[in-house]
Amino acid sequence: MAGEKHLRLQINGDYVSSSPLGGEVWACNLRLALVFGSVDDVGTFPSNWSPVANFSSHSETDWDTTTTYGIDGPLTSTFDPESYLTDYVMPSLQVWMPTVQHHGISRCTGASLYPCDTSGNAISGNVAHGIFHTPVAGTGSGSCLPLENAVVNSWETHVLGPRGRGRIFGPVPPVGAVDGTGTLTDTYVNAEVAAGKALVEGLSYSGTGGATAHVRVVVTGPSSGGGISPYTKYGTIIGLRVGHVVDTQRRRRNKQPERYVHDTITQV
């Protein structure tokens, strides 16, 4: 089979502009199976839909949406990226972001939805954007951990081995997320699991009728087909894990200005 397609959802964020972190950005990426019919726990992405030119924009109470494409499925079935952003993505982010495990200095600015081919990249540069009128901030208080300190949400699927697992790095946590040994507290870990579960469930969509669009968050990638072909096969996310050890993601602080203190060495 050739011409398999899927969606990539990029969650976009930044930091309060008045802080020293104002020049930084962060992002999380999720792959979605868009299937006109039921979504398998382990399956191959469909090849029976295509993005078509459709330049459109809408304004909602809390966000604006724009798109360069729509999706034509089998027979007369269609999928509207703007409607999916408005009905599922943006409301889910409004619940996921303002939690105590995400520090208040970090903000979610919106999301981008791309139709992708087996390269994993957007088809013909198409994208649909959802942008909050006011970025949604976390509610964690006190000091925050360094930006490169990140908490990993690890996805589980029915696909065995490393190719059946995926992950995202969440927004920066508050210092209160760690205990005296530098590991995450049980309270934080439990809250992070609950937030990640709600996010994945909130992004799931099931149309009515056998040939209507269904969307599930999945794990896929260059090796998920066992070396057969990149971004072809997928595993639907059925669980997640959050560990007590803080991970690192250096690229989260690439633009952060660093202050140095210097002194000269005097030789005796």
Q: Can you lay out the helices and strands and say which pair or pack?
A:
Blueprint: E1 6-15, E2 25-36, E3 42-44, E4 50-59, E5 63-72, E6 78-79, H1 81-96, E7 106-116, E8 128-137, E9 149-150, E10 152-156, E11 166-169, H2 186-202, E12 205-206, E13 213-219, E14 233-236, E15 239-241, E16 247-248
Antiparallel strand pairs: 1-2, 1-7, 2-13, 3-14, 4-5, 5-6, 5-8, 7-8, 9-16, 10-11, 10-15, 12-13, 13-14
Helix pairs in contact: 1-2
Number of distinct helices:
2
Beta content: 35-45%
Radius of gyration: 20 Å
Order of helices and strands: EEEEEEHEEEEEHEEEEE
Tell how many strands the DSSP assignment holds. 16
**Coarse shape:** globular
Mean of the pLDDT scores? 91
Structural class based on helices, strands and sheet pairing: mainly beta
Overall helicity? 10-25%
Q: Which consecutive residue ranges, at least 5 long each, have pLDDT under 50?
A: none
Largest sheet: 11 strands, antiparallel
Span from first to last CA?
75 Å
Describe this structure in words.
This protein has two helices and 16 strands. With about 270 residues, it is mainly beta. The strands form three sheets. Strands 1, 2, 3, 4, 5, 6, 7, 8, 12, 13 and 14 form an eleven-stranded antiparallel sheet that branches. A three-stranded antiparallel sheet has the order 11-10-15, with helices on one face. A hairpin with a 3-residue loop joins strand 4 and strand 5. The protein starts with 5 loop residues before the first strand and ends in a 20-residue tail after the last strand. The model has no long low-confidence stretch (mean pLDDT about 90).
